[in-house]
Design a protein that fits this description.
The protein has 243 residues and is of the alpha/beta class. The chain starts with a strand and ends with a helix. It has a single domain, classed as Protein of unknown function UPF0759 (TIM Barrel, Alpha-Beta Barrel), CATH 3.20.20.410. The protein has eight helices and eight strands, in the order E-H-E-H-E-H-H-E-H-E-H-E-E-H-E-H. It is globular, with a radius of gyration of 17 Å. An eight-stranded parallel barrel has the order 1-2-3-4-5-6-7-8. Helix 7 packs across helix 8.
Length: 243
């Protein structure tokens, strides 16, 4: 049976103070508090700028031994270089993430909505990725959501990022020995709350998908008002009961 890693995308949200973090808790202690409730976190500040070596070291040292960090890859690679001519950037980024050591989980490459399907571009990029790490691609244009692309990811043992968000439908599938799922908000991006009925349905389908997998990573990105925290805890309970 697959092991589930369920958490949120990011943890430094001011409106979580009082809703989740104690009012007087120092921000420097937020990760330690978060890690008492969840076993994984998707680092998303790394998308905007490359965190320092000291930051990665602190995250490693401030979390329990069984904690896992998924890391969102720099937009310089995905949005500016658009997967081309980025060898040095990839090398620099991965040299930092390796500081997480045994706690490093999948590297998430979120492609821009304006990047349409280009099989040769994708294949050349996948060829560069070190096989000893887990990689997952989140496509944001519907042209990529076809069997030929899924087959390519499978050949390279790279994960397909399943997502739920307004305006773009996505299949529920895995192209590696793990699944990776992001919930951005069904009705409103980053700010809609998933009902218990919706999460019950998702849990059933995810449970079916997980039967032949080693692991499933699930992150909620609907951070407004702490919705992500509540939804992550709810689906975790459903999936654990279903084991």
């Amino acid at each position: 049976m697959a092991r589930y890693f369920i958490g949120t995308s990011g943890w430094h949200y001011d409106d979580w103070r009082g809703r989740f973090y104690p009012e007087k808790l120092l921000r420097a202690k937020w990760l330690e508090f978060y890690a008492r409730h969840f076993t994984t976190l998707e680092l998303n500040n790394s998308f905007y700028r490359l965190p320092s070596e000291a930051a990665f070291t602190k995250w490693h040292d401030s979390s329990p031994s069984n904690f896992v960090f998924a890391v969102k890859v720099s937009r310089f690679i995905t949005h500016i270089k658009r997967l081309k001519d980025c060898d040095e950037a990839l090398k620099n980024f991965m040299s930092r993430t390796r500081i997480l050591k045994e706690k490093q989980g999948p590297l998430l490459y979120q492609l821009p909505p304006g990047l349409h399907r280009d099989d040769s571009r994708l294949a050349a990029f996948l060829e560069k990725l070190p096989r000893e790490l887990k990689h997952v691609i989140e496509f944001r244009h519907e042209s990529w959501l076809v069997e030929e692309v899924f087959d390519m990811l499978h050949r390279y043992h790279v994960g397909f990022c399943v997502f739920d968000m307004p305006g773009l439908a996505c299949p529920l599938l895995a192209t590696a020995d793990f699944a990776y799922i992001r919930f951005h908000g069904r009705d409103s991006l980053y700010s809609s709350f998933y009902s218990d009925e919706e999460l019950t349905d998702w849990a059933g389908r995810i449970g079916d998908l997980a039967v032949n997998l080693d692991s499933v990573y699930i992150y909620f990105n609907n951070d407004i008002e702490g919705f992500a925290l509540k939804n992550a805890a709810t689906i975790r309970d459903y999936l654990e009961k279903g084991k």
